[in-house]
User: Fold this.
Amino acid sequence: MRAFAQVTCVVVAIAASSGVTAMVFGADGAMSCTNEVVVSEKFIGKHNVKLTTFRCDHAGPVPALSGDSTKVCGAQCDTFCYQPAGGGPNEGDCAIISSALIDHKPNLFNVSGAGTGHNAVLLEHGSCKTYFFDLAATQLTYCYSEWDKLIKYLASTCNAAHGASGGHCIAADERWMVQVVHT
Ligand SMILES: *[C@@H]1O[C@H](CO)[C@@H](O)[C@H](O)[C@H]1NC(C)=O
Assistant:
């Protein structure tokens, strides 16, 4: 199943945040997300984790290869940690986000391709922010249960003790990524 292999550390700058301000990094560490438009906001779970859907422009979209499934829940991704350490995210804050996802119904969610609807989802609590980005031209279906696992994995593997301030796991075909960063 899922492999979070190939942990790579890359040096990147995280923009100071206001609103949903997101940065998307591809495997080369050079992709960004601009012209953000918030589509919806709500709170989930017992601890009021904020869930924002939005769309933004980014380099891409990555074209689907023939035969690619739009159901990417559980698909493999490669992990990159952001150096240096500093500013979090606090793993406890990320754990609260995880706890809000464990029994989330429905487990599956759709994220639009470029240009329409929302191509990104942000969950935030305290110092921890986590994004799901659809980097493809098409709608993708992902799931909260796998997002939960990636939050736990990234928040610990890319923590300050490992000299990092968060990181991301990007699909092998680069059609989507999950990012964990500090506020
Ligand atoms: C996702 O989109 C598909 C196809 O449009 C639809 O059948 C399905 O119900 C949607 N799933 C969710 C969780 O919204």
User: Anything to note?
Assistant: The chain has two helices and ten strands. Residues 106, 108-110, 141 surround 2-acetamido-2-deoxy-beta-D-glucopyranose (CB under 6 Å). The mean pLDDT is 84. Residues 37 and 173 are 26 Å apart (CA to CA).
